[in-house]
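We include this case.
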Amino acid sequence: MKTLSVLKYLLVFFFFAGIGCEETIIEQGFTIGRETNFQVNQLYTSANGQYTLKITEIKDSRCAEGVQCVWQGEVILKGEWTENNNKSSFEIHSVVSDQTKEPIGYTIKIVDAKPYPKYGTVSKPEDLVVTLLIQKK
């Protein structure tokens, strides 16, 4: 009986451990009009080869779990967009959209950013995975 009880607890433990291990897939390519995951300091090329995107800086000021904040905070991305060898800089804000500077003719929206900040833990920008939706205007 004791063995059966221990076995139940082990199964429950492994179940919850498996749920906590969410894997985010990072591809080195993207498609206009499709959500794609990106990381800082990586060069991504569009499926048709016409565009490249590189995030050069990520600022994550979102209110951490376990903390009560006055403002929700936001994610800010700075980067470089290249279209047919013409490079331009961009700056995208997840909340304050009037400060966003997008490449001419395109919109870039921050759909998600993981992991979410937690009180008492330190995360580095290179650990953050940002899901973006890039669309033509």
